[in-house]
Amino acid sequence: MAALGIATGGRNWFSALALGVTLLKCLLIPTYHSTDFEVHRNWLAITHSLPVSQWYYEATSEWTLDYPPFFAWFEYALSHIAKYFDQEMLNVHNLNYSSSRTLLFQRFSVILTDELFVYAVHECCKCIDGKKAGKELTEKPKFILSVLLLWNFGLLIVDHIHFQYNGFLFGLMLLSIARLFQKRYTEGAFLFAVLLHFKHIYLYVAPAYGIYLLRSYCFTANKPDGSIRWNSFSFVRLISLGLIVFLVSALSLGPFLALNQLPQVLSRLFPFKRGLCHAYWAPNFWALYNALDKVLSVIGLELKLLDPNKIPKASMTSGLVQQFQHTVLPSVTPMATLICTLMAILPSVFCLWFKPQGPRGFLRCLILCALSSFLFGWHVHEKAILLAVLPMSLLSVGKAGDASIFLILTTTGHYSLFPLLFTAPELPIKILLMLLFTIYSISSLKTLFRKEKPLFNWMETFYLLGLGPLEVFCEFVFPFTSWKLKYPFIPLLLTSVYCAVGITYAWFKLYVSVLTDPPVRKTKKQ
Question: Where are the transmembrane segments (predicted)?
């Protein structure tokens, strides 16, 4: 944050914040990186060395290409720069290749593409109401929001330590949100369509975009009570949206459709043969479901109600594996998770249609779609919590109630990412960075809403403080117990279950707010 002092009282504070976090990212270059580093190196090699017709068939490495075509072309473009750093990284058969030049190239490619994220944050700040702005720069909502987004702890450790390219993707999403706030609907729709063909996880929030664009763009006027004027429907606007989606999809999928490879591409994008949960259980409803199954199986064994020989070995010994087999509770299918997700999303979508609350209503629906998909989806990755955390930052500086939800969701969601960084040198880094971000988030939002009721009740405060003892046990106590050899998965289990409670609570609290808030009455044509 040293760069902040350069321009505390001037117009360049945003540039100082962006520069400061960029320097921090550079300092993180030598840190641990996960297998995702090899994943993206392999994709560089695939797209550079092989013809397009082989991209989604190549399987020399276990890390096959499973992102949409736009991201494949993004890797292809990067590969033509990578060859000037180290040609060997572009060899498909050089598995687990990692030279110092390869490391520098891949790390800097993430840092440089983050510039789109920085621009998107700047555009989002223009959409923030400054009525609550204090006299001091650091008390202004735009400043607070800039810090919450640019210095987001989760994005920092996932992209710049663990290694991924989420920054510019979230930049596309935030930029599309900003365009919808600015009523530049076609631009927002175009950016989101492009985003979907970079990374399909953003399908989680597609219902919010579809309903909001139909409600606010295709219907041009409301009645005095907020309901739709059906005669205001514009077929031209609907066709323009459809044309945007069609053209973007044609550009992305067209070459593979021409090669008769579309089924192969889709099979890579949607691998339902994977298990219900990722290797580390994401802190969602299924983590609670799996944990309950484990508890019931232990009780069943103690009471001799279950036959030990009939219990799946992975269920009781290996811990958190992808193909988790339930012992007592019914096993869960992809269709069951789809039904649960749709049921969780539908109320928010209905509210967006029947209780319009403007762009903020859209943003709330988007976050609920993201959280519902995270909580009930199939094979959810723990990193997907950022899909709700980052947009929630925009709401946090507007209302005290939203700020409270944001702090619970962010603190819990960020802590759930700790198991991603399991090496000893990164332990002080992740603890320090999270403490700094969390303390700033709580103190700045408390200052912004100091004239309103406290942001936390006693129960919420107690829960959040419980993360401290949990971390002490997982990192400093458990390794020295006899349980480490017999039950090595216990720290992951405790982290996942504890965080699942907080994230589910934040989801429920936001839902109550959405369902009880009155609609925004608006009669002017858009």
Answer: 12-32, 141-158, 188-214, 234-259, 335-355, 361-378, 429-449, 461-483, 489-508
* SS3 of residue 299 by DSSP: helix
Quote the pLDDT of residue 57. Answer: 95
On whether the CB atoms of residues 406 and 141 are closer than 8 A, the answer is no
Q: Is the pLDDT of residue 130 over 80?
A: no
Whole-angstrom Cα distance, residue 393 to residue 177?
12
CB–CB of 80/48 below 8 Å? yes
CB-count exposure of residue 214 (10 Å: 0-12, 13-18, 19+):
middle
**Cα distance between residue 397 and residue 447, in whole Å:** 11
Q: CA-CA distance, 176 to 162, in Å (whole number)? A: 26
Helix/strand/coil (H/E/C) assignment for every residue in 93-108 = CCCCCCCHHHHHHHHH
User: Quick one: pLDDT at residue 173?
Assistant: 98
Which of 6-15, 96-105, 151-160 bottoms out in mean pLDDT, i.e. has the lowest? 6-15
Whether the CB-CB separation of 82 and 48 falls below 8 Å is answered with yes
For residue 458 the two structure tokens come to 């006693």
Which of 233-240's residues contact partners 24+ apart within 8 Å by CB, and which partners? 238/214, 240/186
Give phi and psi for 3, each to the nearest 5: -65, -20
Tell me the one-letter amino acid at 127. C
Count CA atoms closer than 13 A to 406's CA, side-chain side.
27
Q: Cα separations (Å) of 167 from 25, 151, 262, 361, 502?
A: 12, 11, 28, 25, 25
- Tell me the three state secondary structure of residue 233: strand
**Exposure of 283 by Cβ count < 10 A (0-12 exposed, 13-18 middle, 19+ buried)?**
buried
| For the chain, percent of residues with pLDDT exceeding 70 | 90
491/277: higher pLDDT:
491
Residue 320, pLDDT above cutoff 60: no
Give 159's contacts (C-beta < 8 A, 6+ positions apart).
110, 114, 165, 166, 167
Nearest CA-CA partner of 325 in 311, 335, 339, 338? 311
Q: Give the span between the Cα atoms of 17 and 447, in whole angstroms.
A: 20
Dist. CA 342–CA 376, nearest whole Å: 9
Mean pLDDT of the region 73-97: 95
- The DSSP bridge partners found for residue 277 are 380
Of 230, 232, 180, give the one whose Cα is nearest residue 210: 180
What one-character DSSP code corresponds to residue 416? Answer: T
Count of C-beta atoms within a 10 Å radius of residue 525: 9
Q: What residue spans of 137-284 are helical by DSSP H?
A: 141-150, 153-157, 166-181, 185-196, 206-213, 235-258, 262-269
